[in-house]
Amino acid sequence: MVRIGIIGLGNMGQRYLQEITAGMADADRAEPAVAVESAAASQTAGRAEIGAGTAAPLARVTAVCSGSREKRERVEQEMPEVLAVSAAEELLARKEVDAVVIATPNQTHAALTRQALLHGKHVLVEKPVGLSLDEIDELDGLARKAGLCFSVMFQLRVHPAFRELKRLLPALGDLERICWRVTQYYRPQSYYDGSRSWTGKWRTDGGGVLLNQAIHQLDLWQHLFGLPDEAVASVRFGAFRDIEVEDQATVMFRYRGGLTGTFLATVDEEGTGDRLEVAGRNGRAVLAGDRLTTRIRGEERSLVFSDPDRWRKDRMAVVTNFLRGIEEGTPPVSPAHEGKNSLGMVFAAWLSAWTNRWVSLPVDDRVFQQRYLALVQGRPGTGAGSAVKIQPC
Questions:
Q1: Is the per-residue pLDDT at 31 higher than 60?
Q2: I need a labelling partner for 309 at 20 to 30 A (CA). Which of 57, 147, 160, 380 fits?
């Protein structure tokens, strides 16, 4: 059994605590039925859940870390068997912690990950892994050298609709065009105000809709279609909300083989659904909401993936995969080093908007950081993610 320490008790940290404690990372879940509609037949198909559980519990939470005294006291009252501390160093020094889940503000991820790896702990970190591409390489090197599991939470990779799309891509033939509209991340002004006033600022939040929300879809983009060779972007900063960071972005990606793609993400469209279109020589696939429709060599097929508990199940599947990597050597579904690709796509979009030109991928991190650090820290010359302190969460 893996003994887990959770660093950060904000919304996500509390979810990890509740769900791992409740055994949801171990639950023996079968994939819900998927309705399949075609011109020829109608059937019901089930698919095995990635990371489906085992007979024995995989993990228990032994320690948590939070800067909030109120949250620590609540854990002590409700879970007396769980150690609650205020400093990450204290949690990481405990022998009864084998692995940590890092669920703190973006600016702290890399520094906390480095500390955890140097203490010999396996790490599952919320996205983004860090705010520097070179820093992610460094962290990955530390994990590999120490033989530690190191994953990032990109749960859409295990979503059954995207797994099915990945399976079908070869049948589409050579890809010609991709268009992805991401509008599910509507955020009113109140989201950025009040107790969340640290959001929407370069120094404390690191970025906007591309970095904090749509990075999930950008991770899937490179996971499904590969890393683009070039990007050009129109990015709007504080256009629709009273924030410093981007609240809308339109990015065009280009590949050497001729494939082009358009990616739109915004916080300003309420009630509209996401839509992904992929066109190839042999046909096309469209994922609109929870319906995946394909037309390949004249045959049309439609699948509906409907499960109101999908988000939680996918996250717990990634947690379970991480735990099995520790216990059994199972390969990671979301290795942290791949978080460098989606982060680089975000950086390329920003850099293109700032310079009004096409940007090659992978991005030169040193060139990017010269501009980015001026926004994040108000001065050049220091590394993003360094010398950070855990904010109360």
A1: no
A2: 57
> Residue 366, Cβ neighbours under 10 Å: how many?
10
- Give the pair of three-digit tokens for residue 94: 């405990």
> Among residues 145, 139, 243, 146, which one has the least CA distance to residue 187?
243
Structure tokens at 40: 């020829």
Whether the CB-CB separation of 202 and 376 falls below 8 Å is answered with yes
DSSP 33: P
Residues counted in the chain: 393
The residue type of 14 is: Q
Joined tokens for residue 340: 């460098």
Domain 2-30+49-155+311-335 and domain 159-296+340-376 have a common topology: no
Alpha carbons 377 and 356: distance in angstroms, whole number: 23
Q: What is the pTM of this model?
A: 0.90
CA 387 to chain centre: 24
The answer to whether 389 and 88 are in contact (CB under 8 A) is no
User: Could you read off the pLDDT of 324-355 as tens digits, one per residue?
Assistant: 999 999 999 999 999 999 999 999 999 999 99
CATH of region 2-30+49-155+311-335, choose from 3.40.50.720, 3.40.50.300, 3.20.20.70, 3.40.50.1100: 3.40.50.720
What's the pLDDT tens digit per position in 234-286? 999 999 999 999 999 999 999 999 999 999 999 999 988 899 999 999 999 99
Q: Which two tokens stand for residue 354?
A: 């700032």
Range from 115-119, 241-245, 387-391 carrying the lowest mean pLDDT: 387-391
- Per residue in 38-65, pLDDT tens? 433 333 333 334 444 443 579 999 999 9
What is the per-residue DSSP string for 350-375?
Answer: HHHHHHTS-EESS--HHHHHHHHHHH
Q: Which fold has domain 159-296+340-376?
A: Dihydrodipicolinate Reductase; domain 2 (3.30.360)
**Greater confidence, 292 or 24?**
292
